[in-house]
């Protein structure tokens, strides 16, 4: 009997060993499961602090697979975070795109050599805003994007990335431009040390941003755009959908910084605008922002413009007959090449004259830097609520070279407390 009991104990022991070996081997057979659980822990921790807005690992995997299979096109995010994770920050919008997104995209014009500078910008835009919305990102270039550019930008973005080549006729001298005259201007500007004054490519860039980016085949699919340039910074969390805000508030164009343009780059721009107004008075709207652009009722331009390296705007407006007539008129006057007209005054004058005042928006809560200016909200509570890391001393809004005061005045907006101290 004692022997039988011993045998039974051996059998039981062997059985337990087999079960233990089975569990060890099954849990170590998938390193991915280890990764997933580590990522789950991270996710759980981060959602405790930030509200549940992190991606599920399963979804991240699905997106990676999607991106590999369809050349950078990821499936639109669908599943909100686990309902069991407490969302401590109830003011946050729905964490992921769920079909209620706007028809919108980021858009960046860039060279391959801009890759690391645009990488910095993307990282900030994603961290501060787009990781919650996964909006697409369109990259445009006058030369084909190389593999490094595509790989780096696709890895950093949460939405689909799309890469467009600019057609040559949108990035070259139009036939009506006198090349010799344009070359003489560049030489003269080089001698006078006017910034980008001797550059041909900068002129193509300004003309493209003024008149063509919104007509690129890739852009035709969208209604809203957010322009992002290399090496910008975003200093605050943006916890709402800025595109939806624009649509719901009937806004068409927006800015964060405004300033005076270099007079030497646009000596005859206003003459050209006046010619356009005469030719197409039907495109000038009532209740426009002429008071932002001119101090004498339109006789002369005061050089105020919205800084167009940041823009959130409506593409249908830019594609409208009014805007296209305006661009064609300016283009034929030749100032993109015979002077060095920038897309910032070109867009700003259009927005100022062809949109109603209430269709323009100042995004105070988008704290932003593009060398050398910063917009940092004046109101401390706005900075704290949105986890801003900008130094309010750097805020340019109320500086004498900014036109933002003027924007507030023509719109009878109350300036934030403490603005005088930042003058
Ligand atoms: N593809 C392409 N993009 C350009 C070129 N020049 C400028 N850009 C882009 O146009 C935008 C404005 O140029 P940037 O050098 O930032 O001008 P700045 O901000 O006025 O000093 C940026 O997004 C640049 O990456 C060019 O020759 N080719
Ligand atoms: Mg720039």
Automatic annotation (TrEMBL):
Q: Looking at the record, which segments are called Disordered? A: 46-98
> What's the superkingdom here?
Eukaryota
So where's the catalytic machinery, residue-wise? 311 (nucleophile)
What residues form the membrane-spanning segments?
7-25
- Residue stretches of biased makeup (Low complexity): 65-86
Q: Which organism is it from?
A: Cryomyces minteri
Q: What is this protein called?
A: Alpha-1,2 mannosyltransferase KTR1
* Keyword set, alphabetical order: Glycosyltransferase, Membrane, Transferase, Transmembrane, Transmembrane helix
Q: What Gene Ontology biological process does one annotation of this record name? A: protein O-linked glycosylation
What GO MF annotations does this protein's record show?
alpha-1,2-mannosyltransferase activity
Question: Which is one Pfam family of this protein?
Answer: Glyco_transf_15
The record's annotation in InterPro entries points to:
Glyco_trans_15, Nucleotide-diphossugar_trans
GO cellular component terms, semicolon-separated: Golgi apparatus; membrane
Q: Which family does it belong to?
A: Belongs to the glycosyltransferase 15 family.
């Amino acid at each position: 009997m004692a022997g039988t009991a011993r045998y039974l104990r051996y059998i039981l022991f062997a059985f337990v060993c087999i079960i233990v070996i089975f569990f060890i081997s099954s849990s170590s057979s998938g390193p991915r499961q280890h990764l997933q659980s580590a990522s789950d822990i991270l996710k759980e921790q981060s959602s405790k602090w930030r509200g549940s807005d992190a991606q599920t690992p399963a979804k991240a995997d699905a997106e990676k697979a999607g991106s590999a299979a369809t050349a950078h096109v990821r499936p639109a995010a669908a599943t909100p975070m686990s309902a069991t994770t407490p969302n401590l920050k109830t003011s946050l919008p729905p964490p992921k795109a769920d079909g209620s997104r706007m028809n919108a995209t980021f858009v960046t014009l860039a060279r391959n050599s801009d890759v690391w500078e645009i990488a910095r910008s993307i990282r900030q835009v994603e961290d501060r805003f787009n990781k919650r919305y996964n909006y697409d990102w369109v990259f445009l270039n006058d030369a084909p994007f190389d593999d490094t550019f595509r790989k780096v930008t696709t890895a950093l973005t949460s939405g689909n990335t799309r890469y467009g080549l600019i057609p040559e006729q949108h990035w070259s001298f139009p036939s009506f431009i006198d090349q010799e005259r344009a070359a003489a201007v560049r030489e003269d500007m080089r001698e006078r040390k006017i910034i980008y004054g001797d550059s041909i490519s900068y002129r193509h860039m300004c003309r493209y941003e003024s008149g063509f980016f919104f007509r690129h085949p890739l852009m035709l699919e969208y209604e809203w755009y957010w322009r992002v340039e290399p090496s910008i910074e975003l200093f605050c969390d943006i916890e709402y959908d800025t595109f939806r805000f624009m649509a719901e508030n009937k806004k068409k164009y927006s800015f964060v910084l405004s300033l005076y343009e270099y007079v030497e780059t646009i000596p005859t721009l206003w003459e050209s605008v006046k010619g356009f107004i005469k030719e197409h008075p039907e495109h000038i709207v009532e209740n426009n922002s002429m008071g932002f652009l001119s101090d004498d009722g339109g006789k002369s331009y005061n050089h105020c413009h919205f800084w167009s390296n940041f823009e959130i705007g409506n593409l249908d407006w830019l594609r409208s007959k009014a805007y296209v007539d305006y661009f064609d008129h300016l283009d034929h006057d030749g100032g993109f090449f015979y002077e060095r007209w920038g897309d910032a005054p070109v867009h700003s004058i259009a927005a100022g004259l062809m949109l109603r005042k209430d269709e323009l928006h100042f995004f105070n809560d988008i704290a932003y830097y593009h060398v050398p200016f910063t917009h940092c909200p004046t109101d401390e509570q706005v900075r704290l609520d949105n986890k801003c890391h900008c130094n309010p001393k750097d805020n340019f809004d109320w500086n004498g070279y900014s036109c933002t005061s003027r924007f507030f005045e023509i719109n009878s907006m109350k300036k934030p407390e403490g603005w005088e101290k930042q003058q």
